[in-house]
Amino acid sequence: MKNPWDWTEEDLLALVKNQVQESLTLDYKASKALERTEKVKDEITKDVSALANSAGGTLVYGIPENKQTRLAEKVDEGVDPAVITREWLDQVITSNIQRRIDGVRINQIPLITVSPGRVAYVVHVPQSARAPHQARDKLFYKRFEYHSKPMEEYEIRDVARRQDAPDLRVRFQMDWTRRTTTAPNETWWTIALVNSSPIPCSEAVIDLQFESSFKLRHRGPLTASHHTMIDGEKGTIPFVSCRLFWSAKGGIPTFDGCPVAVSPQLFSIDHNQLRDGQYLIKWKVSAPRTTPKEAWTYYRLTHSKDSTEFGFWHEDLTEEQALALPDIRWFKNEVITTEWC
Protein backbone atom coordinates (compact mmCIF):
# COMPACT_ATOMS: atom_id res chain seq x y z
CA MET A 1 0.00 0.00 0.00
CA LYS A 2 1.07 3.58 -0.67
CA ASN A 3 2.71 5.75 1.95
CA PRO A 4 0.44 8.47 3.43
CA TRP A 5 2.51 11.24 1.87
CA ASP A 6 1.66 9.76 -1.54
CA TRP A 7 -2.09 9.44 -0.93
CA THR A 8 -4.58 11.00 -3.33
CA GLU A 9 -8.30 11.69 -3.14
CA GLU A 10 -8.86 8.11 -4.28
CA ASP A 11 -7.01 6.80 -1.22
CA LEU A 12 -9.11 8.95 1.12
CA LEU A 13 -12.28 7.61 -0.47
CA ALA A 14 -10.93 4.07 -0.04
CA LEU A 15 -10.55 4.64 3.72
CA VAL A 16 -14.28 5.37 3.85
CA LYS A 17 -15.31 2.60 1.46
CA ASN A 18 -13.21 -0.05 3.21
CA GLN A 19 -14.41 1.04 6.65
CA VAL A 20 -10.91 1.58 7.99
CA GLN A 21 -11.05 2.25 11.71
CA GLU A 22 -9.02 4.76 13.67
CA SER A 23 -6.13 3.24 15.57
CA LEU A 24 -3.16 4.10 17.72
CA THR A 25 -1.44 5.33 14.54
CA LEU A 26 -4.37 6.67 12.49
CA ASP A 27 -6.43 9.69 13.55
CA TYR A 28 -9.33 11.19 11.58
CA LYS A 29 -10.22 14.89 11.84
CA ALA A 30 -12.96 16.91 10.19
CA SER A 31 -11.75 19.83 8.07
CA LYS A 32 -13.06 22.29 10.66
CA ALA A 33 -10.18 21.10 12.88
CA LEU A 34 -7.99 23.33 10.68
CA GLU A 35 -8.76 26.96 11.44
CA ARG A 36 -6.54 29.97 12.04
CA THR A 37 -7.28 30.20 15.76
CA GLU A 38 -5.11 29.83 18.84
CA LYS A 39 -7.22 26.94 20.12
CA VAL A 40 -6.74 25.02 16.87
CA LYS A 41 -2.97 25.59 17.03
CA ASP A 42 -2.99 24.03 20.50
CA GLU A 43 -4.92 20.99 19.23
CA ILE A 44 -2.66 20.48 16.20
CA THR A 45 0.51 20.53 18.30
CA LYS A 46 -1.09 18.25 20.88
CA ASP A 47 -2.05 15.63 18.27
CA VAL A 48 1.22 15.78 16.32
CA SER A 49 3.43 15.61 19.42
CA ALA A 50 1.33 12.72 20.82
CA LEU A 51 2.03 10.64 17.71
CA ALA A 52 5.75 11.43 17.80
CA ASN A 53 5.90 10.51 21.51
CA SER A 54 4.06 7.24 20.87
CA ALA A 55 4.36 4.94 17.85
CA GLY A 56 4.13 7.60 15.15
CA GLY A 57 1.22 7.68 12.73
CA THR A 58 -0.99 9.68 10.40
CA LEU A 59 -3.46 12.54 10.90
CA VAL A 60 -6.11 12.91 8.20
CA TYR A 61 -7.77 16.34 8.10
CA GLY A 62 -10.86 16.03 5.94
CA ILE A 63 -12.44 12.80 7.19
CA PRO A 64 -14.71 12.98 10.25
CA GLU A 65 -15.03 9.75 12.24
CA ASN A 66 -18.05 8.05 13.73
CA LYS A 67 -17.66 8.63 17.46
CA GLN A 68 -19.08 5.20 18.34
CA THR A 69 -17.42 2.92 15.78
CA ARG A 70 -14.35 5.07 15.03
CA LEU A 71 -14.82 4.34 11.33
CA ALA A 72 -14.26 6.94 8.63
CA GLU A 73 -17.65 8.51 7.84
CA LYS A 74 -16.99 10.48 4.66
CA VAL A 75 -14.59 12.77 2.89
CA ASP A 76 -15.96 16.19 3.82
CA GLU A 77 -15.88 19.56 2.07
CA GLY A 78 -12.18 20.20 2.79
CA VAL A 79 -10.57 23.60 3.30
CA ASP A 80 -9.67 26.54 1.08
CA PRO A 81 -5.96 26.09 0.18
CA ALA A 82 -5.57 29.86 -0.04
CA VAL A 83 -6.60 30.20 3.61
CA ILE A 84 -5.20 27.02 5.17
CA THR A 85 -1.94 26.67 3.32
CA ARG A 86 0.58 23.87 3.56
CA GLU A 87 3.14 26.45 4.72
CA TRP A 88 0.86 27.64 7.55
CA LEU A 89 0.32 24.10 8.80
CA ASP A 90 4.04 23.35 8.63
CA GLN A 91 4.77 26.57 10.56
CA VAL A 92 2.29 25.66 13.31
CA ILE A 93 3.97 22.27 13.77
CA THR A 94 7.62 23.32 13.53
CA SER A 95 7.36 26.52 15.57
CA ASN A 96 5.16 25.36 18.44
CA ILE A 97 6.47 21.88 19.35
CA GLN A 98 9.64 21.53 21.40
CA ARG A 99 11.89 19.78 20.47
CA ARG A 100 11.34 19.97 16.74
CA ILE A 101 10.13 16.66 15.28
CA ASP A 102 12.22 15.33 12.41
CA GLY A 103 10.63 13.73 9.37
CA VAL A 104 7.08 15.16 9.50
CA ARG A 105 5.48 15.05 6.03
CA ILE A 106 2.47 17.12 4.98
CA ASN A 107 0.45 15.97 1.97
CA GLN A 108 -2.00 18.49 0.48
CA ILE A 109 -4.66 16.52 -1.42
CA PRO A 110 -6.94 18.27 -3.96
CA LEU A 111 -10.55 17.11 -3.60
CA ILE A 112 -11.18 17.04 -7.32
CA THR A 113 -14.45 15.09 -7.25
CA VAL A 114 -15.75 15.60 -3.71
CA SER A 115 -15.19 19.35 -3.37
CA PRO A 116 -13.47 20.99 -6.37
CA GLY A 117 -11.18 23.86 -5.47
CA ARG A 118 -10.71 22.66 -1.90
CA VAL A 119 -8.19 20.32 -0.27
CA ALA A 120 -7.66 17.82 2.53
CA TYR A 121 -4.42 17.44 4.47
CA VAL A 122 -2.61 14.27 5.53
CA VAL A 123 0.13 14.74 8.12
CA HIS A 124 2.45 11.78 8.65
CA VAL A 125 4.44 11.84 11.90
CA PRO A 126 7.23 9.30 12.50
CA GLN A 127 7.92 7.92 15.94
CA SER A 128 10.64 10.19 17.26
CA ALA A 129 13.95 9.07 18.69
CA ARG A 130 14.30 12.60 20.12
CA ALA A 131 11.15 12.35 22.22
CA PRO A 132 9.57 13.53 24.43
CA HIS A 133 8.14 16.48 22.53
CA GLN A 134 6.24 19.27 24.26
CA ALA A 135 3.05 20.73 22.80
CA ARG A 136 2.17 24.43 22.64
CA ASP A 137 0.40 24.28 26.02
CA LYS A 138 3.65 23.08 27.68
CA LEU A 139 2.35 19.54 28.26
CA PHE A 140 3.61 16.21 26.94
CA TYR A 141 1.04 13.98 25.22
CA LYS A 142 0.71 10.35 24.12
CA ARG A 143 -1.80 8.43 21.98
CA PHE A 144 -4.19 6.40 24.12
CA GLU A 145 -7.49 4.82 23.05
CA TYR A 146 -8.00 7.04 19.98
CA HIS A 147 -7.15 10.26 21.86
CA SER A 148 -4.18 12.44 22.76
CA LYS A 149 -3.73 12.24 26.55
CA PRO A 150 -1.25 14.01 28.87
CA MET A 151 1.61 11.76 29.91
CA GLU A 152 2.43 10.85 33.50
CA GLU A 153 5.84 11.83 34.83
CA TYR A 154 7.18 8.25 34.67
CA GLU A 155 5.97 7.94 31.05
CA ILE A 156 7.91 11.07 30.11
CA ARG A 157 11.06 9.52 31.63
CA ASP A 158 10.45 6.23 29.78
CA VAL A 159 10.08 8.00 26.44
CA ALA A 160 13.23 10.03 27.13
CA ARG A 161 15.14 6.74 27.39
CA ARG A 162 14.04 5.73 23.90
CA GLN A 163 17.48 6.59 22.52
CA ASP A 164 19.15 4.19 24.97
CA ALA A 165 17.86 0.97 23.36
CA PRO A 166 16.74 -0.35 19.94
CA ASP A 167 13.11 0.39 19.06
CA LEU A 168 12.04 -2.49 16.82
CA ARG A 169 9.04 -3.22 14.63
CA VAL A 170 8.22 -5.78 11.95
CA ARG A 171 7.08 -4.69 8.50
CA PHE A 172 5.88 -6.69 5.50
CA GLN A 173 7.12 -5.22 2.23
CA MET A 174 6.09 -6.06 -1.32
CA ASP A 175 8.79 -6.91 -3.86
CA TRP A 176 7.39 -5.66 -7.16
CA THR A 177 10.47 -6.72 -9.14
CA ARG A 178 9.46 -10.39 -8.94
CA ARG A 179 6.01 -10.05 -10.56
CA THR A 180 5.83 -11.66 -13.99
CA THR A 181 3.31 -11.89 -16.81
CA THR A 182 3.53 -15.68 -16.64
CA ALA A 183 2.35 -15.69 -13.00
CA PRO A 184 0.37 -12.43 -12.60
CA ASN A 185 -1.54 -13.70 -9.56
CA GLU A 186 1.58 -14.51 -7.55
CA THR A 187 2.95 -11.72 -5.35
CA TRP A 188 6.29 -11.70 -3.58
CA TRP A 189 7.18 -10.00 -0.33
CA THR A 190 9.74 -9.90 2.44
CA ILE A 191 9.68 -9.50 6.22
CA ALA A 192 11.73 -6.53 7.40
CA LEU A 193 12.96 -5.53 10.83
CA VAL A 194 12.75 -1.76 11.34
CA ASN A 195 14.62 0.08 14.09
CA SER A 196 13.48 3.63 14.94
CA SER A 197 16.34 4.18 17.38
CA PRO A 198 19.93 5.21 16.68
CA ILE A 199 21.01 2.35 18.97
CA PRO A 200 21.83 -0.61 16.66
CA CYS A 201 20.42 -4.11 17.00
CA SER A 202 22.37 -7.15 15.79
CA GLU A 203 20.01 -10.02 16.66
CA ALA A 204 16.33 -10.58 17.27
CA VAL A 205 13.61 -13.23 17.47
CA ILE A 206 10.45 -12.64 15.44
CA ASP A 207 7.29 -14.55 16.32
CA LEU A 208 4.54 -14.54 13.70
CA GLN A 209 0.93 -15.70 13.61
CA PHE A 210 -0.81 -16.03 10.23
CA GLU A 211 -4.42 -16.88 9.62
CA SER A 212 -4.49 -20.52 8.53
CA SER A 213 -6.40 -19.53 5.38
CA PHE A 214 -3.54 -17.20 4.34
CA LYS A 215 -1.81 -19.80 2.21
CA LEU A 216 1.85 -19.22 1.34
CA ARG A 217 3.09 -20.57 -1.97
CA HIS A 218 6.76 -19.96 -1.06
CA ARG A 219 7.33 -19.75 2.67
CA GLY A 220 11.14 -19.60 2.80
CA PRO A 221 12.36 -20.63 6.27
CA LEU A 222 8.89 -20.37 7.86
CA THR A 223 7.62 -23.59 9.41
CA ALA A 224 4.54 -24.02 11.56
CA SER A 225 5.51 -24.55 15.20
CA HIS A 226 1.97 -24.86 16.54
CA HIS A 227 -1.65 -23.89 15.88
CA THR A 228 -3.80 -21.53 17.92
CA MET A 229 -7.38 -20.28 17.90
CA ILE A 230 -8.91 -16.93 18.68
CA ASP A 231 -12.52 -17.08 19.84
CA GLY A 232 -14.96 -14.21 19.63
CA GLU A 233 -18.67 -13.47 19.52
CA LYS A 234 -18.66 -13.99 15.75
CA GLY A 235 -16.93 -17.37 15.88
CA THR A 236 -13.36 -18.66 15.72
CA ILE A 237 -10.28 -17.80 13.66
CA PRO A 238 -7.49 -20.42 13.38
CA PHE A 239 -3.87 -19.24 13.28
CA VAL A 240 -0.51 -20.79 12.49
CA SER A 241 2.46 -19.74 14.63
CA CYS A 242 6.01 -19.45 13.27
CA ARG A 243 9.33 -18.18 14.59
CA LEU A 244 12.29 -16.57 12.81
CA PHE A 245 15.77 -15.97 14.22
CA TRP A 246 17.73 -13.05 12.76
CA SER A 247 21.36 -12.12 13.29
CA ALA A 248 23.60 -9.61 11.56
CA LYS A 249 26.45 -12.18 11.81
CA GLY A 250 29.20 -9.60 11.50
CA GLY A 251 27.30 -7.67 8.84
CA ILE A 252 25.37 -4.42 9.13
CA PRO A 253 22.98 -4.26 12.10
CA THR A 254 19.64 -2.50 11.93
CA PHE A 255 19.43 1.09 13.15
CA ASP A 256 17.37 4.18 12.42
CA GLY A 257 16.98 4.50 8.66
CA CYS A 258 18.50 1.09 7.97
CA PRO A 259 15.88 -1.71 7.99
CA VAL A 260 16.99 -5.26 7.32
CA ALA A 261 15.33 -8.32 5.78
CA VAL A 262 15.04 -11.05 8.41
CA SER A 263 15.36 -13.76 5.78
CA PRO A 264 17.45 -13.90 2.59
CA GLN A 265 14.54 -15.75 0.96
CA LEU A 266 11.37 -14.10 -0.27
CA PHE A 267 7.84 -15.26 0.45
CA SER A 268 4.95 -15.45 -2.00
CA ILE A 269 1.22 -16.02 -2.17
CA ASP A 270 -1.05 -16.94 -5.04
CA HIS A 271 -4.22 -14.84 -5.21
CA ASN A 272 -5.98 -17.76 -6.90
CA GLN A 273 -5.78 -19.60 -3.57
CA LEU A 274 -7.29 -16.77 -1.51
CA ARG A 275 -10.77 -15.36 -1.12
CA ASP A 276 -11.36 -11.62 -1.14
CA GLY A 277 -11.06 -10.13 2.32
CA GLN A 278 -8.58 -9.25 5.02
CA TYR A 279 -6.11 -11.75 6.46
CA LEU A 280 -4.81 -11.03 9.95
CA ILE A 281 -1.15 -11.27 10.91
CA LYS A 282 0.29 -10.82 14.40
CA TRP A 283 3.97 -10.12 15.01
CA LYS A 284 6.15 -9.96 18.09
CA VAL A 285 9.82 -8.99 18.19
CA SER A 286 12.26 -9.65 21.05
CA ALA A 287 15.88 -8.56 21.25
CA PRO A 288 18.59 -7.93 23.87
CA ARG A 289 18.14 -4.73 25.92
CA THR A 290 14.58 -4.22 24.68
CA THR A 291 11.08 -4.88 25.92
CA PRO A 292 9.27 -7.29 23.56
CA LYS A 293 6.91 -5.44 21.23
CA GLU A 294 3.91 -6.84 19.38
CA ALA A 295 1.13 -5.63 17.10
CA TRP A 296 -1.32 -6.73 14.42
CA THR A 297 -1.53 -5.95 10.73
CA TYR A 298 -3.36 -7.49 7.77
CA TYR A 299 -3.16 -8.36 4.10
CA ARG A 300 -6.09 -7.14 2.02
CA LEU A 301 -7.25 -8.65 -1.29
CA THR A 302 -10.10 -7.25 -3.38
CA HIS A 303 -11.03 -8.27 -6.92
CA SER A 304 -13.13 -6.06 -9.16
CA LYS A 305 -14.15 -6.36 -12.80
CA ASP A 306 -11.14 -4.41 -14.07
CA SER A 307 -8.47 -4.75 -11.40
CA THR A 308 -7.17 -6.44 -8.27
CA GLU A 309 -6.23 -4.45 -5.17
CA PHE A 310 -3.91 -6.01 -2.62
CA GLY A 311 -1.21 -5.25 -0.11
CA PHE A 312 -0.18 -5.09 3.54
CA TRP A 313 -1.58 -2.45 5.86
CA HIS A 314 1.31 -0.28 7.06
CA GLU A 315 -0.05 0.71 10.48
CA ASP A 316 0.15 -1.22 13.78
CA LEU A 317 -3.15 -2.38 15.27
CA THR A 318 -4.16 -3.67 18.69
CA GLU A 319 -5.89 -7.06 18.89
CA GLU A 320 -9.23 -5.34 19.55
CA GLN A 321 -8.86 -3.18 16.45
CA ALA A 322 -7.72 -6.11 14.31
CA LEU A 323 -10.62 -8.35 15.27
CA ALA A 324 -13.08 -5.51 14.61
CA LEU A 325 -12.00 -5.16 10.97
CA PRO A 326 -14.60 -5.92 8.29
CA ASP A 327 -14.22 -8.75 5.77
CA ILE A 328 -12.58 -11.12 8.25
CA ARG A 329 -13.62 -14.74 7.92
CA TRP A 330 -14.97 -16.13 11.20
CA PHE A 331 -15.69 -19.86 11.45
CA LYS A 332 -18.92 -20.76 13.20
CA ASN A 333 -20.35 -24.25 13.48
CA GLU A 334 -17.86 -25.40 10.84
CA VAL A 335 -15.09 -27.97 10.77
CA ILE A 336 -11.85 -26.02 10.97
CA THR A 337 -8.83 -27.29 9.10
CA THR A 338 -5.57 -26.04 10.59
CA GLU A 339 -3.37 -27.42 7.79
CA TRP A 340 -1.18 -24.67 6.39
CA CYS A 341 -0.06 -25.25 2.84
TrEMBL record:
Ranges for domain Schlafen AlbA-2: 22-152
Gene3D superfamilies named in the record: Schlafen, AAA domain
Listed PANTHER family: GLPR-RELATED TRANSCRIPTIONAL REPRESSOR, SCHLAFEN ALBA-2 DOMAIN-CONTAINING PROTEIN
Identification of the protein by name: ATPase AAA
Natural source organism: Corallococcus macrosporus DSM 14697
Record lineage: Bacteria, Pseudomonadati, Myxococcota, Myxococcia, Myxococcales
